[in-house]
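Work Package 4 report. The design task specified in the project plan requires that, given a folded chain encoded as structure tokens, an amino acid be chosen for each position. We show below one input record used in the internal validation round.
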């Protein structure tokens, strides 16, 4: 369910201010997660219970102060390809400018819903001036807003969320895991996909500036059924290095959002690198199941009895505090442990759907809590009375207690570890929340 809202527009109209307003609330939560590098140009937001990803396309192409046309083309291309809804931001103080018109000309090619967001409408009078942007001859409607004060944003978002896809109630694919294969270029993603599908596929597009939607195909391979969110073949032929990064990040986000389990492939000959850490961090942030494959294991020479173990420790160290992801050493080339990898993916998917009965949970966890109660803070004693798993898509455990605000992060980790110790949940991020009772 990838609902993506892209903000496009010339520099200085207020895109990043608006972006921060939309995702600001979430940022604090994301900040807690160590080992996760935050990217300022996309984030998660919510409006009336609907979640979406916001992309500040301007943020991606900033810094390349060379040619504006190039910047416009890239921003708009990204928005057209990836977004569910496009917000074209302009500035009421400045009125219609030549650059706005250039944006409008490129945007006109899009079939996606476009709204003109007339920013800096801080006063009623300014709001009135927003009407002049209808002259751009584009979009469904013009919405005057003030990113600074937030006024007008509610009306805009009410419209935007109407375009979002909703969960299909009678989904024939219910119960079949959706898998995204992620990893740096050259790690072996396409080879893995080809091996799974048992056929050579050639889906590289030559036309610059074209990508296609990810394909959801249902497969049966190695005795298991799954849906592959296919982005591996979408390698763009481009000479500019940053372009590859830029598109691979967008594709990763998109594939992730649509998947249940992310298979993150790491190159055994290179070890775990910063970008691998980012990918795993993204998956965890998105509450997806994660299976790590250390691929090209055949190329590691002089393997001793401890080589895999040491490799594993190194990975967990880089991903700390997250250590719940299974790691499998594969060679797609020699088909070593590929079968096991698929089985693990299915297992993680099942873990993600696992529900623990309230009686069992209380029986086990209240005992753990009794043995190690929350440390008192400023003379306050927290008493946890009851725990239950909440019926959500991701394993979430609510602990009912008298003083939720006095529980430390370290105690949350303790509870998470105990849940894992007793019930497993390998490969799956779990949420621990507190409710006042
Ligand atoms: P971007 O380049 O499009 O990302 O624009 P920024 O978000 O960096 O904003 C450019 C300038 O416009 C900054 O000085 C902001 O403080 C200002 N700005 C943004 N939104 C508003 C608004 O709603 N009203 C006013 N008066 N200024 C704004
Ligand atoms: P992608 O960019 O992640 O899709 O990577 P590819 O699937 O295109 O693989 C990049 C290169 O690595 C190709 O030459 C593959 O044949 C090679 N390769 C993939 N998996 C393995 C493996 O397990 N062992 C070895 N030795 N080479 C591999």
């Amino acid at each position: 369910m990838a609902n993506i809202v892209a903000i496009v527009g010339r520099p200085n109209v207020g895109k990043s201010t608006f972006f921060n307003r939309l995702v600001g609330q979430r940022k604090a939560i994301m900040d807690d997660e160590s080992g996760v590098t935050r990217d300022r140009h996309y984030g998660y937001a919510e409006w009336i219970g609907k979640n979406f990803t916001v992309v500040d396309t301007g943020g991606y192409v900033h810094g390349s102060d060379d040619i504006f046309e190039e910047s416009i083309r890239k921003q708009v291309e990204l928005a057209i390809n990836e977004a569910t809804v496009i917000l074209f931001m302009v500035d009421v103080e400045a009125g219609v400018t030549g650059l706005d018109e250039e944006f409008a000309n490129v945007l006109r090619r899009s079939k996606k819903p476009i709204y003109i967001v007339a920013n800096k409408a801080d006063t009623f009078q300014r709001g009135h001036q927003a009407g002049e942007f209808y002259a751009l001859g584009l979009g469904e409607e013009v919405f005057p807003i003030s990113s600074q004060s937030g006024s007008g944003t509610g009306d805009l978002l009410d419209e935007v969320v109407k375009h979002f896809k909703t969960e299909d109630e009678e989904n024939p694919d219910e119960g079949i895991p959706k898998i995204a294969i992620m990893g740096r270029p050259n790690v072996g993603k396409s080879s893995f996909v080809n091996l799974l599908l048992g056929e050579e596929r050639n889906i590289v597009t030559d036309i610059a500036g074209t990508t296609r939607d990810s394909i959801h195909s249902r497969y049966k391979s190695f005795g298991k059924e799954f849906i592959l969110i296919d982005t591996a073949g979408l390698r763009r032929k481009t000479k500019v290095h940053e372009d590859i990064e830029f598109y691979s990040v967008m594709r990763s986000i998109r594939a992730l959002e649509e998947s249940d389990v992310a298979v993150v492939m790491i190159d055994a000959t290179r070890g775990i690198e910063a970008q691998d850490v980012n990918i795993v961090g993204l998956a965890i942030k998105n509450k997806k199941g994660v299976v790590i494959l250390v691929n090209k294991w055949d190329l590691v020479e002089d393997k001793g009895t401890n080589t895999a173990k040491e490799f594993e420790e190194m990975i967990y160290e880089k991903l700390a505090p997250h250590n719940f992801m299974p790691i499998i050493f594969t060679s797609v080339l020699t088909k070593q442990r590929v079968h096991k990898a698929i089985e693990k993916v299915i297992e993680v998917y099942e873990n993600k759907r696992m529900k623990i009965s309230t009686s069992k949970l209380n029986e086990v966890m209240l005992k753990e809590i009794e043995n190690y109660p929350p440390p008192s803070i400023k003379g306050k004693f927290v008493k946890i009375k009851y725990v239950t798993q909440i019926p959500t898509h991701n394993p979430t455990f609510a602990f009912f207690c008298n003083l939720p605000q006095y529980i430390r992060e370290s105690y949350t980790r303790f509870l998470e570890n105990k849940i894992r110790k007793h019930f497993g949940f390998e490969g799956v991020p779990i949420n621990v929340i507190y409710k006042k009772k």
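Residues 241-258 form the longest helix (18 residues). Validation will be extended to a larger panel in the next phase.
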